[in-house]
Design brief:
Layout: E1 3-7, E2 10-13, E3 18-25, E4 34-39, E5 46-51, E6 58-60, E7 68-73, E8 78-83, E9 92-98, E10 115-116, E11 120-125
Parallel strand pairs: 2-11
Antiparallel strand pairs: 1-3, 3-8, 4-5, 4-9, 5-6, 7-8, 9-10, 9-11
Length: about 130
């Protein structure tokens, strides 16, 4: 069993920055790709970014390219999402997830992920 706990969310003005963290327990995640998703008010959950097991491959949704950076520290079993130039449209609950079935891919769909955190709220005011 895997537990994922996100933190680092909060309120920020447009143009500001936040760094989200996701700490895993119950299993070492060093061999598995991980990702971030978000769900805005009244919207479906959507893909934000993903990273390969070793950090060598990173993928981003078009709407965050150049503004967000995904990274991981396998020694700490922790995933990060550094967010810059935040916009009101980035307001959402952000979720981290891990794919334990496909260690060599960088998944971008909800169905490919097996375990999810409870989410952390990010609110960006204009």
């Amino acid at each position: 069993q895997v537990q994922l706990v996100e933190s680092g969310g909060g309120w920020v003005q447009a143009g500001g920055s936040l760094r989200l963290s996701c700490v895993a327990s119950g299993r070492t995640l060093a061999r598995y790709p991980m990702g971030w998703f978000r769900q805005g008010p009244g919207k479906e959950r959507e893909y934000v970014a993903s990273i390969s097991w070793d950090g060598g491959v990173r993928d981003y949704a078009d709407f965050v390219k150049g503004r967000f950076t995904i990274s991981r520290d396998n020694a700490k079993n922790t995933l990060y999402l550094q967010m810059y130039s935040l916009k009101p449209d980035d307001t959402a609950v952000y979720y981290c997830a891990v794919d334990i079935r496909h260690s060599l891919t960088v998944p971008s769909t909800i169905e490919e992920y097996d375990y999810w955190g409870q989410g952390t709220q990010v609110t960006v005011s204009s």
